[in-house]
Amino acid sequence: MDLESAKAAFIELSRKIHPGALPGFINWIKDSDEFQVKDEGEVILDNIAEDLRQIVPFEAILPSETLFTPVSGVNADCDEVVTLHVDSFLFDDDYIDHLVENNKFSRNYCLDCQSRKTKPLTFISHSASKPVINLIFKHCLPNLYSKTLIDVGSRLGPILFAGYLYSSAAKIIGIEINKEFCHIQEQVAQKYGMMDRISIINDDVLNCSALLSTGDVIILHNVFEFFTEASKLEQMWTFVSQTLRRSGQLILTCPSLEESLSSIGMDHILPAWVEEVKLDFSAMVGETDEFLEDIHLYTVK
Question: Where, if anywhere, are coiled coils annotated (predicted)?
Fold first, then answer.
């Protein structure tokens, strides 16, 4: 249905409503969550998520990937049997609720087979959700005009695409070790006309020190914990801390550097390396509240 047909249908519907009920109907349209107006960027990100759902597995984990269960930190208790990898960019809570209502998904597992004794499954996401992405670009980062933004472990590319839509960064670079993910990101960027500012580097981040040193903003979103052997985590974070040394560089992380480094006994390096930027979320209300404590911004000293 095109716009003019939709207008005509709406007018016809309004004529069928009892005059006494019409004001309430109009107010419902204005106030209902069903008719929340999305900006152009949100619409495009929704379309990208729909495209990606058609080409990646439900858990957004590719056969060519190797995952590791953390042995320290807050996720060390993740049991592979009852932990599901659900990509938050592809599947928001409303989408999951829809699947549950249609018996296509369950949030719980049975403790005793065939009983009603159940417990919630553990959900792990390796991508930023759309609410988190909105927070990052609309409330956390400064104006990125002429700047270079680098996302380490860009996977499906949501940070890159949002950076294109919500910022004026001159260069938006994703570093991704998995070749299949790189191909997927490039496909999406080409489809939506984003290749003029987005570039994808298929390489191990350990080989990208020169590139990282050029970045004005570095995004580290759940970057190493599930994709690096426990014995190599110290090597990865040592590399990052020694590479991101240009004074004034911004590092945005989820979770905090304190959480990531304390789990491997390296948090002592933080005072001499970075200073946390206090983020003011006082004006933020609603469903994004639960994500606020996970987003941290630092400036290199």
Answer: none
